[in-house]
Amino acid sequence: MASATLLSPIEAAPPQGVAAAAPMPDVLPPVKPRKGFIGFVRRHPTMAIGGALLLLMVLVAIFAPLLGTTDPTALAPARRTREPSAMYWFGTDMLGRDVYSRVLYGARVSLIVGFSVAILASVVGLAIGMVSGYVRILDSIVMRVMDGLMSIPPILLAIALMALTRGSVQNVIIAITIAEIPRVSRLVRGVVLSLREQPYVEAAVAAGTRTPSIILRHILPNTLAPITVQATYICAAAMITEAILSFIGAGTPPTIPSWGNIMAEGRALWQVKPYIVFFPAIFLSITVLAVNLLGDGLRDALDPRMAKRL
Amino acid sequence: MALLEVENLQTHFRTPDGVNRAVDGVSFHVNAGETVAIVGESGCGKSVTSMSILRLIPEPPGKIAGAIRFQGRDLLKLSDREMRDIRGNEISMIFQEPMTSLNPVLTVGRQIGETLRLHQGLSKQQAEEKAVEMLTLVGIPEPRRRVREYPHQLSGGMRQRVMIAIALACNPKLLIADEPTTALDVTIQAQILELMKDLKHRVGAAIVLITHDLGVVAEVAERVIVMYAGRKVEEAAVGPLFNDPKHPYTQGLLGSMPKLGSSLHGDEGRLAEIPGLVPSLKKKIDGCVFAGRCPKVTDLCRQVAPALEEKAPGHVAACHYAIKEGAIAA
Amino acid sequence: MFAYVIRRVLATIPVMALVALFVFSLLYLAPGDPAAVIAGDQATPQDVERIRASLGLDRPYLVRFGSWVWGILNGDMGVSIFTNLPVTTMIAQRIEPTLSLMILTLILAVTIAVPMGVVAAWKQGTLIDRAVMGFAVLGFSVPVFVVGYLLAYVFALELDWLPVQGYTALSKGFLPWLENLVLPAVALGGVYIALIARITRATMLEVLQQDYIRTARAKGAGQGSILFLHALKNAAVPIVTVIGIGIALLIGGAVVTESVFAIPGLGRLTVDAILRRDYPVIQGVVLLFSFVYVLVNLIIDLAYTLFDPRIRY
Fold it and tell me: Which segments does the entry list as coiled coil (chain C) (predicted)?
């Protein structure tokens, strides 16, 4: 019987006349998936580079006193506007202050403002977005207010707020935070509304799970990823806004060295002594770049779907 | 000479975790005017095969190797320019999703006319006239109005008719239809199949029909190619394939198809299923690709990949244990 | 359609009213006596009184808001504390340079950024794509005044191709006008180009994966027609939306750019007003910019139907 042959197990010897298919060649070179640290850097180069640069800046800010700096506020009219040299690495400004020391200490203001605004705006935005996404009655009112706030360009809003207060790092943080809150709230609200329609959340509601525990277990964890990504972008935007505010004289008070201040002070002389503006500009750009790269990397890692898009 | 000869077609994709050998050594031919069906489960490489013929695979990350001879010319050796002259003109294609395969922001007339303007150099007016003609041909009522409409104003069946109009506008010699009826309602499916059969006779095009629906195959195809895991495992004329499938995979496919009038109760009426899943194509498979799911698997199957052999005249299969007709089974 | 336009226009009224309320209330959000804050540290009690009177701070809040809004509706934004000129007059004097700068930047940015994003999407993963994306990250990271100084240093000071600073009115000729605005427009456009190029690339990547693009290829359509006819038209709505939202960046950036390039526009007016705490002027400028921003986005919303026949009102 044919079927008997077909089903009988063959041990060692193949049936007569076995025709083996010719193996097909490789068309593409084989791919080796990489693991470990090297693999992480290869897969997320932007996050690795951004993270490393940012870490470097944080270390610079913390250890500024140990990095060959002098008192960044010490005036020395005798040695004004010296060009960069072995003595004054980045030169000195109009009042004879050491630009190198000022730039290194200036990292502190930028980083403090960037991180504080990112955290504050995220926390407040999260709260407003959650309430708005969950409490129907408040939603339309809160969102109209946010629409109104969002209709004022953020830098302009921060400027207008600063115009009223005395310049201080704390006020700068508050002003920029207020300008950034509407965007976070909108983001969180959008995520909350879409999550509430997810089958597993509806199932939890149907099963009688209490609202606080649904928020804690389902909604909050899912908003964290987009909020983290958003927070890095807010951090970058806040650093730039701080510099802009200080640059036009409505930000950090001149007694505290910040990159925006140093540039503002170098403004009058920039055509003859461009280095005073140049060095803080480079530091600011690199720091913001680091945060942006970190944000791009985080977005790629946390949200593969979105990563493909942007 | 056959109209289309595909020889050792390999289409591979580079992915972060390995090379996906989506199609790995497929050969077949299509004669002028003939209807050939390619069947298999999803993920077996049917669609990739059809896309490879028109070189619609993005390279990179994809890579096509082998030879695809159309009227004697190897399509893989043509320039992009020469390839564009063939697409939509001598070989055209119909896709599975009529809802998404038409451009939502262009009018139906413009989309039909585009082919004509590209390949026949018609003016805008001539192209619109011809588009109206094509819409009439594929049985769309009020073609003069429809030609100015956008795809979202048409039903699914009508959109597939528009796709067919686009595909046939330049009288192609070969039409590749990738699951043309899958997304449609059953009644519309029958209409579209009828239309394709009818137009095939009128235009005289050969058809390569990609489908997982064996009912459709029985209705329209003359010859059938069964694919599994990126390889051809069996090929025969429709009759012999349905009556005497040689490969265990084909047997499984046919067994999983309900027969009209059969009872769903009792063991006899039970639909057979093929256990397991199509293997990952990112690893090189030693032995027979179907070994993991085959009810008749032996150690030989796991070690030696079976070659395609003629088991009966015009009937090839890749299985060590498929009986060759005329061979003595003692 | 007409009814929809009316409804959309009416819907912006509450938003505008809210903006007006914010702008008006900003003065009272600050801790302490607003008159004293505006007067500054060296002010005499008489100065504070004078400011209090000129702002009408002695009247109830809602009455003041009402009369302020009434004034604005009648084209009266109050009087500058510093120059005693009507705010509307000061704005009218300064509007041309700012409008010129922003329109030039807008045109420049859109014509550069959209093709950039399209090509990056087409050549996804290649060196060109990486270059565009790298440029975009840089655009987001290097602040506008840094770009401004860099451009001015290289093209004005070192190469001497273009003027370092200043503004020439359009009435004095197109070329002098353009010469003065090129560098500021490029500096201001950086972030905007980055934003538009990025959204264009992202949307195009999504559109290029759609089935209808495959259909177009299968028809034998050329690369140019696929990118710019079949794909870009489908990608238009998100791109245009971001162009509208991005105007906020232009407005914020203009304030700084005008300072760097000494352009006597609304941005400079804002900075000067802040340094002098000239609150009526700040209110006027912020309100004007916000209204323009809301209006532009309203127009863009209404224009969607031009790009996508599926959108019907």
Answer: none
pTM of the prediction? Answer: 0.83
C-alpha to C-alpha distance for A276 and A79, rounded to whole angstroms:
14
Determine which of B300, B302, B308 to mutate to test the interface with A (most A C-beta atoms within 10 Å): B300
| Dihedral sign computed on CA atoms, order A294, A296, A297, A301 | positive
Which 3 state secondary structure label does DSSP give B197?
helix
Per-residue pLDDT tens over the stretch A177-195: 998 999 889 888 888 888 8
Give C 128-157 residues with CB within 8 A of chain A.
137-138, 140-146, 149-150, 153, 157
Per CATH, the homologous superfamily of domain C91-307 is MetI-like (1.10.3720.10)
Does residue A76 sit in helix, strand or coil? Answer: coil
Q: Tokens representing B131?
A: 């588009």
Length of chain A in residues, anyone? 310
- CATH number of this structure's domain A41-63+89-303: 1.10.3720.10
Type of residue at A185: S
- Would you say B96 and B209 are in contact if contact means Cβ atoms under 8 Å apart? no
When scoring B13, B14, B64 by the number of chain A Cβ atoms within 10 A, the one with the most, hence best to mutate, is B14
User: Nearest chain A Cα to C199, which residue?
Assistant: A310
Measure in Å the smallest separation between the Cα of B192 and chain C Cα atoms.
19
Domain ranges of chain C: 2-73, 91-307
User: What is the DSSP annotation of A154-220?
Assistant: HHHHHHHHHHHS---HHHHHHHHHHHHHHHHHHHHHHHHHHHHTSHHHHHHHHTT--HHHHIIIIIH
Phi/psi zone of residue B327: left (φ > 0), alpha (ψ -120 to 50 degrees), beta?
A: beta
Q: Which of B253-277 are b and which e, b meaning 16 or more Cβ less than 10 Å from the residue's Cβ? A: bbeeeeeeeeeeeeeeeeeeebeee
